[in-house]
Amino acid sequence: MEENKKLQQLKQYKVNDNEQPMTTNQGLKITDDEHSLTAGLRGPTLIEDFHFREKMTHFDHERIPERVVHARGTAAHGIFESYDNHSAITKADFLSEAGKRTPVFVRFSTVAGSRGSADTVRDVRGFATKFYTDEGIYDLVGNNIPVFFIQDAIKFPDVIHAVKPEPHNEIPQAQSAHDTFWDFIAHNQESAHMIMWHLSDRAIPRSYRTMEGFGVNTFRFVNAQGEAHFVKFHWKPVLGMASLVWDEAQKIAGKDPDFHRRDLYDNIEAGNYPEYELCVQLLKPEQEHDFDFDLLDPTKIWPEEQVPLHKLGKMTLNRNVDNFFAETEQVAFHPGHVVPGIDFTNDPLLQGRLFSYTDTQLIRLGGPNFHELPINRSVCPFFNNQRDGYGRQTINVGRVSYHKNGMQNNTPHEVPEEDGGYRHYEEKVDGHKIRARSESFNDHFTQARMFWISLTDVEREHIVKAMSFELGKVETLAIRQQIVDMFANVCRDLATTVAQNIGVEPPQEGIEPPDVKTPSPAVSMEQRPAKGTATKKVAVVVNDKSAIEELASAFDEQHMTVEFISSKQGFIRDFEIKQTFDTAHPVLYDGLYVDATFDCPVTSRKLQTFVDDTYNHYKAIGYHEAPLIDAQYVNEPGVGQGVQTFIELLAEGRHFDRTFAIG
């Protein structure tokens, strides 16, 4: 009887969402859930937008204590060194002279998965950098993809709710291959460009060390004379870019779910310090309307061929964290943490982020004093009249905690701009209070088409396979059909091939992509692959008859990371064999060299499986003598005899022109 009473009490809290009008939590009916309240079509978001603040606040506080997004991450310390005096474009002090060094802390992450998810899922990767400058904290909070799914921050809770595990069964984890995500995409076609990047090899990077980073939003640089530039930020890995293939990424998720964090940690410990060059794209205010896209639209790139990159400096990650929780988990980033010389624009996604990040930290880190945690603390002194609250560490003395005051000689006092005080760029803002978006944001397919025509045939094939996989997991046929019709706006052949693969009708007649003739080769990974052998990890199969000393010396000269693999652990002469065919797997390596055979049929079969997977994932294979590998592979691309040949093949990267590969 008591159980039935409790059941009745619970039922009154169940909500049937079908056919219900949208309201605030106070019951006020909503006329527009697509646009933040702005001052004019391209103006800043207004703080009086109670609907946006309520929606975003609720979203920011959904998870305790795990991050709502970017929960799965890893991090490292390092140094940023400016290449030159860049005061002509910004008065930011950390960029003010050649050789100036600034401590940094970088956190890499996936977006959709929980803390316990795998590293190699198909997802956007976070690339957030905290600069501990002499003027205070500067956070460059970005991703490994230069665009985003949505144009206005008010829709951020929606896209994340859509991609997260579905609420009725909490499935699937860390994946976009399900109905709610693709239903969102079908009904929010501004996501078309981002989806092309998401389905490309960018979403399955080989490592954080071979991954680009982007600030995504449009910011401003301001120099000491008050002259401004629109700016986009880029991190370029010195090693070059490299990705996984999809079959490999899935297998790694099972064999080593910590693959990316292990790779970063191990390489820093070994002295293979990851390096990234900070580059910017700059446009003068008078160039704001010179392009066929809106500079403030976060779903658009500035093609590097039209707006070239300028190198500012280099970041080197040279120290692992001492305590994962205290540093990696407690670090708090915020795009609103800026220094003089860096300012904001009316980018509607950025405007919302400036509210959301602090709001999130309040619940995740327990209150307003998260800036006092060691990993977040500024290296320069900070003084103000803020007091008390959860987690307060500063012990303020004296009677005064207000401004202005006479009892303490008006301390702390304001600082004029000429003495380093922060002054916002004075932009004229004029417009009606509206919920709408400028027509200049309405083109959702031109850059998606440009991305497609800029790729190599191999990269396009990977997108077809990725879209077929993702939509093949969608149960609702109507959603599959909507997506096929949607992407006919990018390429009819793409949409038609995917339609055949997933069992829906070809795209509707009359849907044609934009007439884009000029590609942007800079978006293609295969046209700028990571060359060379430095820090690449290879598996070397040996036994007690192998020339292990010569192999170790040759590969060490190439700055490669070598793991010897055999039928059992132990020592072969002076070399410890830490891995066997049972503890290792070919997906964990960049290449395979075979210098051994085994009498045991089971061990021989395990070796053949190593060779097969390495071949299927297009990686370099080397061997000492031809009988050591299957005869069908001997004359295949990326397969060669001898150490020097193997080194050359490894340096080239993947070999996608193989006859039988099924990766």
TrEMBL record:
InterPro entries: Catalase, Catalase_AS, Catalase_clade2, Catalase_clade2_helical, Catalase_core, Catalase_haem_BS, Catalase_immune_responsive, Catalase_large_C. There is a cross-link at residues 334-357 (3'-histidyl-3-tyrosine (His-Tyr)). It catalyses: 2 H2O2 = O2 + 2 H2O. SUPFAM superfamilies: Heme-dependent catalase-like. It is an enzyme of class 1 (oxidoreductase). GO terms for molecular function: catalase activity; heme binding; metal ion binding. Residues 505-529 are annotated as: Disordered. Its cofactor is heme. It comes from the Bacteria. The keyword Metal-binding applies. The active site is at 70, 143. Its EC number is 1.11.1.6. The keyword Nuclease does not apply. One of its GO terms (cellular component) is cytosol. Heme binds at residues 67, 107, 156, 353, 357, 364. GO terms for biological process: hydrogen peroxide catabolic process; response to oxidative stress. Residues 23-411 form the Catalase core domain. Keywords: Heme, Hydrogen peroxide, Iron, Metal-binding, Oxidoreductase, Peroxidase. Decomposes hydrogen peroxide into water and oxygen; serves to protect cells from the toxic effects of hydrogen peroxide. Belongs to the catalase family. HPII subfamily. This is Catalase.
